[in-house]
Amino acid sequence: MSHEQDRDYEQLRVSGLHAFYGESHILHSIDLVVKRGELVTLLGRNGAGRSTTLKSIMNMVGRRTGSIVINGEETMTRAPHHIARLGVGYCPEHRGIFSGLSVQENLTLPPVVRSGGMSLEEIFSMFPNLYERRFSQGGKLSGGEQQMLAMARILRTGANMLLLDEITEGLAPVIVEKLGEVLVKLKEKGLTIVLVEQNFHFAAPLADRHYVVEHGQIVEEVSADELSAKQSVLDSYLGV
Amino acid sequence: MSQSFDPATIHKAILEQQKADDRKKMMLNGVLVLLLMAAPFAIYPVFLMKILCFALFAVAFNLLFGFTGLLSFGHAAFLAAGSYTTGYLLSNYSGLTTELGILAGTAVATVLGLGFAVLSTRRHGIYFAMVTLALAQLVFFFLVQAEFTGGEDGMHGIPRGHLLGLINLENNLTMYYFVLAVFLGCYLLVQRVVTSPFGQILKSIKQNEPRAISLGYNVNQYKVLAFVISAALAGLAGSLKSVVFQLASLNDAHWHMSGEVILMTLLGGVGTLLGPVVGATFVVNIEYQLSQGPLRDWVDPILGGIFILTVLAFRSGIVGEINKFVNKNLR
Amino acid sequence: MSMIFGVPLAVLSGQLLIGVINGAFYALLSLGLAVIFGLLKIINFAHGAMYMLGAMATVILFDNLGVNYWVALFVAPLLVGALGVIIEYFLLRRIAGQDHIYSLLLTFGVALLLQGVLTNIYGVSGLRYAIPELFKGGVNLGFMFLPYYRAWVIVVALVVCLGTWFMIEKTKLGAYLRAGAEDAQLMQGFGINVPLLVSLTYGFGVMLAAFAGVLAAPIYSVTPVMGSHILITVFAVVVIGGLGSIGGAIITGILMGVIEGLTKTFYPPASTAVIFLVMVLVIMFRPSGLFGKEA
Amino acid sequence: AISNDTVKIGYLADMSGTYRDLAGPNGLKAMEMAIADFGGKVKGAKIEVVSADDRNSADVASSTVRRWIENENVDLVAGLVASSVSIAVSDILEENDKLGIVSGSAASSITNEHCTPNHIHYVYDTYPLANGTANAVVKEGGKSWFILTADYAFGHALEGDVTRVVEENGGEVIGTLRHPFPTPDFSSFILQAQASGADVVALANAGADTTNAINTASEFGVTQSGQTLAALLLFLTDVHALGVEAAQGIQLTTGWYWDMNDETRAWSDRFMEQTGVRPTMVHAGIYSSTLQYLEAVEATDSDDAQTVRKQMMETPINDMFATNGKIREDGRMVHDMYLAEVKTPDESENEWDLYKIVRTIPGDEAYRPLSESKCPLVSSK
Amino acid sequence: MSEPCVLETRNLVKEFKGFVAVDDVNLKIQKGHIHALIGPNGAGKTTVFNLLTKFLTPTRGHILFKGQDITAMKSAAIARKGVVRSFQISAVFPHMTALENIRIALQSFEGTSFSFWKSGASLNRLNERCLELLDAVGLAEYANTTTVELAYGRKRALELATTLAMEPQLLLLDEPTQGMGAEDVDRVVELVRKAAQGRTVLMVEHNLSVVSKLCDRITVLAQGAVLTEGDYDTVSADPQVREVYMGRDGSGERGAASAPNKTEAAQ
Ligand SMILES: Nc1ncnc2c1ncn2[C@@H]1O[C@H](COP(=O)(O)OP(=O)(O)OP(=O)(O)O)[C@@H](O)[C@H]1O
Ligand SMILES: Nc1ncnc2c1ncn2[C@@H]1O[C@H](COP(=O)(O)OP(=O)(O)OP(=O)(O)O)[C@@H](O)[C@H]1O
Ligand SMILES: [Mg+2]
Ligand SMILES: [Mg+2]
């Protein structure tokens, strides 16, 4: 157990990762390392392959080669459900709300994979909208409400590594602000977070490090304290 | 990125490509026509006619399924409407020339198709399939009950008669070339339809119906028209079939027939022009060969196996797989 | 004697009861279909064949191993369910995520295969199976003679239906299944062994069909083609109830049994067509079926 | 002379569907037995058999037969079960002047309104079935009848025949009920039949419908409540499937039964050795008709349809299938029919010991008289 | 306020089984304006859009387009009148080329859409206009590319071009920049600005920098009802709006702004 507390403990190591959708080769040798308790972002233009990287970690793409080690375990040949059981919580792009299930069912759906997750009360107090609509069908929520639900439901599972894909998409600024606070809290609890984000303004103050992805490769790594120094490089990569 | 693109150049390139595609299509059509013209000298004409009738049926079905995205599970009804109407008229009105009988059969199928279409096109997916199935079952029920159909025994001894009152169709070869002409006419029509302005709209409906609606299209009307054309052609196939075989039977109306045409289309390649033709040829052949040979007790299980294999191994159908192969290796 | 449309009331009540009994069969069969379609989005055209297998297995087990009805009631569905799992694992799994039509064709192929092979082995005249000793005979209800066996059918079918409904709509396992139906990949990403769940669900769905088959063995003629006749009707029932609606399948099953029964009384030739008529009407006015959620 | 020095017989039957057990693959066995018994050759010419599954479809049947005739020089088409198939095929035979022998079909229309100079209907048809059974049952006191009819041409014809016989004998049909084909569940209809209070519940249907109806009738205690069950078309295979428990006491008419005499038993034993089952009347008919055909070919040294048919019509048929059978000008082979009763479980000694023959119905009494025929070939008209 | 009003809603209400998603909304969109509809998640913005285009039927109230009551019209008819929406989720015809996508839209003016006997070549004369439109959104080079193969941002651009092909008088945009990177956001802002010339635009947008740059007038919805209305400065100064929507920071900016400077990042 002790090494799990260790801040230098390598929770995720991706090396030489290639990924394919059918014939198309999307990721071209991705390498990245995330330590326990770190919050790392993947930045990049649309279509760069950030979502695909997260999906590859979850073994949800067509074909992969390379190596992905989670908590010291090689997972290339593992089924997705096994990966989740290693303590990984995945919040997919475009929310993935189960539209036929009620909000409450959606929330309680993902099995608890570790102890230490949030309780329903905590979640509802964090997202009062969801509490109000807890008996509605998931599919009937507004876009933003769905986004909150998608985020909320993995907080319950106690996963200690979160893969979050564009969680601020379509959210009102107040909520985005609140989500920022949530992430800070989660970090304080020692969770490891990989964040794919377009909203740099949101991500910058939270992250320890940033990876820039372009054409399926990591082209730049920037740590928080290098931000201002590398501002112009980042700008050019992100097309600002 | 900064490179500028001149619309005129692009347009020219597009037109060039269209022309090249057209040429390819013409060549393929030419080959098809020649093959079919020569076929009766190598293969028994009645058998060929059977293939052509089913090929037409499958082409008609594919117009709806492959190009509009509507899976009808009731197309047997139109086949039967065509064959029974034509059969009845030719048997009972000896003055009627064959082509009039066929036209009348097609007309009845067309009207029936309109009825089906109006009732079903507002429904989507499986519901659409099931409504068409249900309607076809009602047609089946009608055909079983009605006196003029001969019930289980079907209609027999339908005279082939004379084309335009002149050309005797009793001769198998004459009959064959008549059927071939009709088939080719319909095939080319369908080819035209799918590339026509109307065909474009159908394609768009298939790919993204809500978007088509939001662009101001009353999609139901388009679906209805597509359905009616498809039903008319299916009816025509039935009419021809009744003249060729000189009989009309309940098999034409049974839901298995609706299933069979799906199999043919799928096996050949959904959404390709030639696919249904190839699929029909294949299925008719297989059924025939098997029922003659030592495996004749095993036709059903073998057909079942073919279903399974098709779905598992080559889902885009014979023509679809060939296209894929060509695109991958020869482009 | 009081008459309704020229039919004595007593006869009518008898017909109603018979309708409910047949409806219980429909309910069991359509429930299995609804489970498979609703949860796995598989259009299971092999359902009729599985029903047939249930009945055939009952007879074959008895003839060859002397397995009695009560044992068969458990063993036959389990065997068929196991076959279902195998079919799912080796065939259906490979087309997961493809258009519905493929599952339809695949299962149709499976049905043809099973049916054809058994026809070649056992012929089509039907196999013989006796009503279990316990249920021989019947009771005179005044308006009709009710064979004990039919009474048993209705009770046991309803119990199984309601149990299934409860499991799917009210339990956690059911929630997994419903969610898996929408986005299996994501469910797996949450740590649920979806492939296993899918196999078991399919197995369970066909088990329901096989169970109906066992119930049918003593009263209907057991032949390799017995399932193909009933398949389309059962599909109609599921559509009328609303595809994927578990409760809808059960209620509609019974309802259609009754409607069919009444048609058999008033205009028998239409009794197989009536369900399709109802289906057309229902879909006209309630596009997603009587109990379906909006499409 | 014999064309191509070969007598080619096409065996066409339902090999995989509803009527499979009636003729099917075992019918082909019977035909092969006949050819072997004949010696494998006629007048030095080869005897060849081709066979096909008609899939109960007139389409499939007609294209197969056309091909057989036009490409493969088939001289005789035999088997022929579903009436739609038989009618379609006989049209083609007439067109091409080839011969057909229908063994499996029930419809009496095949030698009535659908008669042709090119086919023979050999084993049975609905007329004697209705005639024999109804006659016997009415005479035993079953005066009021309730008829359950399969709702298609065949059922209607059978219903008509029964009604006529019942009324001629002073009985009365107090109700008829037309059920769809096929019907998996008969309880509703049986209930109505019970409620009708008729003396006799007659089943004017076939195959699975009949066995289902009989099963349900036994379940609902139709016979216990004093009603008689009469099945108009019931084959040995059906009764075998039902078992004597459910079928006991049912009266039926049949054209042949395997356990009638030493000759039939001997042949049946040989048949069973090959197939594992006892032959139906259709199997026996296929055997017999093939033999008769080959003898006619030998006698005339020709395989021309008209020549052979004429020869067959002129020769009385005497073999293990029929005594003094004769083929009429309408193509009907007329022979004695038998009224049988299904044995009780006590009487039945083994699974195939199913009937006792109650009465022999002379052929002329059993079949539709030529005077009532609608067949244009009948000269007396 | 001399400009006439293009679109007006009167007491618009939409209820879902006892839940009021849109509550008595009165909107007035002036001709030539870019009008934004903002508000917290679940405020009812998308629902309003759905009502305007009849993807949903209003429970009560009226919708007027250029003075004419269109409440009872069907979706397609409304689209043909010139009220065209683009979708919150990218909506294209995936297996057609970019050019064909636009052509479908142009075809609706042709009157030959039912001509199943006409050659497909008869559509070629629309190509020029298609290419113009594609060029306008920077997609000319992709004219012959199948749409599935386009990157997300380009699909959005294509969709917008398709929408413009409809010659809309009133353009409804639901979160046009959602899920886009900084670069694309800027492009879309430009596009919308261009598209808005001579037209009226009503848009839902959570990216306030976009709103502030583009919009002439803003309506804030909250819990289905109009909270306030005005130009960006007025609205963003409103304490109620800040509380329910913009938050303490109030900027609500996203990627469109350049990466934050050090001080902000350290905060
Ligand atoms: N299911 C799929 N099949 C084929 N190609 C895909 C699929 N999903 C994504 N792609 C392609 O893979 C590439 C990378 O996509 P990805 O979703 O990872 O990008 P991203 O960096 O997350 O960008 P975005 O901001 O658009 O989400 C894109 O070119 C995309 O078109
Ligand atoms: N079909 C429906 N049935 C029931 N409730 C619905 C339905 N559609 C929307 N709602 C509810 O109506 C409210 C308004 O939804 P709407 O989608 O209009 O919000 P929105 O303002 O677009 O939000 P967002 O910015 O998050 O997209 C939400 O609370 C939603 O849950
Ligand atoms: Mg992404
Ligand atoms: Mg919204």
TrEMBL record, chain A:
<dbReference type="GO" id="GO:0015807">
    <property type="term" value="P:L-amino acid transport"/>
</dbReference>
<dbReference type="InterPro" id="IPR017871">
    <property type="entry name" value="ABC_transporter-like_CS"/>
</dbReference>
<dbReference type="InterPro" id="IPR003439">
    <property type="entry name" value="ABC_transporter-like_ATP-bd"/>
</dbReference>
<dbReference type="InterPro" id="IPR052156">
    <property type="entry name" value="BCAA_Transport_ATP-bd_LivF"/>
</dbReference>
<protein>
    <submittedName>
        <fullName>ABC transporter ATP-binding protein</fullName>
    </submittedName>
</protein>
<dbReference type="GO" id="GO:0005524">
    <property type="term" value="F:ATP binding"/>
</dbReference>
<keyword id="KW-0813">Transport</keyword>
<dbReference type="GO" id="GO:0016887">
    <property type="term" value="F:ATP hydrolysis activity"/>
</dbReference>
<dbReference type="InterPro" id="IPR003593">
    <property type="entry name" value="AAA+_ATPase"/>
</dbReference>
<feature type="domain" description="ABC transporter">
    <location>
        <begin position="12"/>
        <end position="240"/>
    </location>
</feature>
<keyword id="KW-0547">Nucleotide-binding</keyword>
<comment type="similarity">
    <text>Belongs to the ABC transporter superfamily.</text>
</comment>
Automatic annotation (TrEMBL), chain B:
<keyword id="KW-1003">Cell membrane</keyword>
<dbReference type="GO" id="GO:0015658">
    <property type="term" value="F:branched-chain amino acid transmembrane transporter activity"/>
</dbReference>
<protein>
    <submittedName>
        <fullName>Branched-chain amino acid ABC transporter permease</fullName>
    </submittedName>
</protein>
<dbReference type="Pfam" id="PF02653">
    <property type="entry name" value="BPD_transp_2"/>
</dbReference>
<dbReference type="InterPro" id="IPR001851">
    <property type="entry name" value="ABC_transp_permease"/>
</dbReference>
<feature type="transmembrane region" description="Helical">
    <location>
        <begin position="126"/>
        <end position="146"/>
    </location>
</feature>
<dbReference type="GO" id="GO:0005886">
    <property type="term" value="C:plasma membrane"/>
</dbReference>
<feature type="transmembrane region" description="Helical">
    <location>
        <begin position="54"/>
        <end position="80"/>
    </location>
</feature>
<keyword id="KW-0472">Membrane</keyword>
<feature type="transmembrane region" description="Helical">
    <location>
        <begin position="100"/>
        <end position="119"/>
    </location>
</feature>
<feature type="transmembrane region" description="Helical">
    <location>
        <begin position="298"/>
        <end position="318"/>
    </location>
</feature>
<feature type="transmembrane region" description="Helical">
    <location>
        <begin position="261"/>
        <end position="286"/>
    </location>
</feature>
TrEMBL record, chain C:
<feature type="transmembrane region" description="Helical">
    <location>
        <begin position="196"/>
        <end position="220"/>
    </location>
</feature>
<keyword id="KW-0029">Amino-acid transport</keyword>
<dbReference type="InterPro" id="IPR001851">
    <property type="entry name" value="ABC_transp_permease"/>
</dbReference>
<feature type="transmembrane region" description="Helical">
    <location>
        <begin position="266"/>
        <end position="285"/>
    </location>
</feature>
<feature type="transmembrane region" description="Helical">
    <location>
        <begin position="151"/>
        <end position="168"/>
    </location>
</feature>
<feature type="transmembrane region" description="Helical">
    <location>
        <begin position="12"/>
        <end position="35"/>
    </location>
</feature>
<feature type="transmembrane region" description="Helical">
    <location>
        <begin position="68"/>
        <end position="92"/>
    </location>
</feature>
<dbReference type="GO" id="GO:0005886">
    <property type="term" value="C:plasma membrane"/>
</dbReference>
<feature type="transmembrane region" description="Helical">
    <location>
        <begin position="104"/>
        <end position="131"/>
    </location>
</feature>
<feature type="transmembrane region" description="Helical">
    <location>
        <begin position="232"/>
        <end position="259"/>
    </location>
</feature>
<keyword id="KW-1003">Cell membrane</keyword>
<dbReference type="GO" id="GO:0022857">
    <property type="term" value="F:transmembrane transporter activity"/>
</dbReference>
TrEMBL record, chain E:
<dbReference type="InterPro" id="IPR027417">
    <property type="entry name" value="P-loop_NTPase"/>
</dbReference>
<keyword id="KW-0547">Nucleotide-binding</keyword>
<keyword id="KW-0067">ATP-binding</keyword>
<dbReference type="InterPro" id="IPR003593">
    <property type="entry name" value="AAA+_ATPase"/>
</dbReference>
<protein>
    <submittedName>
        <fullName>ABC transporter ATP-binding protein</fullName>
    </submittedName>
</protein>
<dbReference type="Pfam" id="PF00005">
    <property type="entry name" value="ABC_tran"/>
</dbReference>
<dbReference type="InterPro" id="IPR032823">
    <property type="entry name" value="BCA_ABC_TP_C"/>
</dbReference>
<feature type="domain" description="ABC transporter">
    <location>
        <begin position="7"/>
        <end position="248"/>
    </location>
</feature>
<dbReference type="GO" id="GO:0005886">
    <property type="term" value="C:plasma membrane"/>
</dbReference>
<keyword id="KW-0813">Transport</keyword>
<dbReference type="Pfam" id="PF12399">
    <property type="entry name" value="BCA_ABC_TP_C"/>
</dbReference>
<dbReference type="GO" id="GO:0005524">
    <property type="term" value="F:ATP binding"/>
</dbReference>
